[in-house]
Amino acid sequence: MEKIEMIENIVQKYSFVSKALEDELLAKPAILMHLTSIAEQFSKLRNSEIVEKFDPSDIKGAVATRNFIAHDYDGVNLSVIEMTIRERLPVVKGVIEAILEDRNG
């Protein structure tokens, strides 16, 4: 959740995902690092019942994105990153919120 919220804060600071990704000095590297961290968290949960609550395509996509970032940083397709931030992160965040609510409620 923390990494998703950090990405949201970066995007909010720039007003648009595309503007944040244009900032090669700070915002883009931070966003890509947070996306990498999200994928690594999914990997840690691989054998957990928690991971079953997520759409398998979101997990697969997170891992694939992490691999692209790690192995071809300069070749990362920023339109895919933008779509991920706009469309998939809110879904993943919703699942996390539901998990936390179940645990706390």
UniProtKB/TrEMBL annotation:
Q: Which GO terms describe its molecular function?
A: hydrolase activity; RNA nuclease activity
Superkingdom of the source?
Answer: Bacteria
Q: Which Pfam families match?
A: HepT-like (PF01934)
Q: Name one GO cellular component term.
A: toxin-antitoxin complex
Quick check: keyword Nuclease in the entry? yes
Do you know which Gene3D superfamilies this protein is assigned to? bsu32300-like
* Signal sequence, start to end: none
- Keywords noted in UniProt: Hydrolase, Nuclease, Toxin-antitoxin system
Check the record and name the InterPro entries matching this protein. HepT-like, HepT-like_sf
Q: Which family does this protein fall into?
A: Belongs to the HepT RNase toxin family.
According to UniProt, the name of this protein is DUF86 domain-containing protein
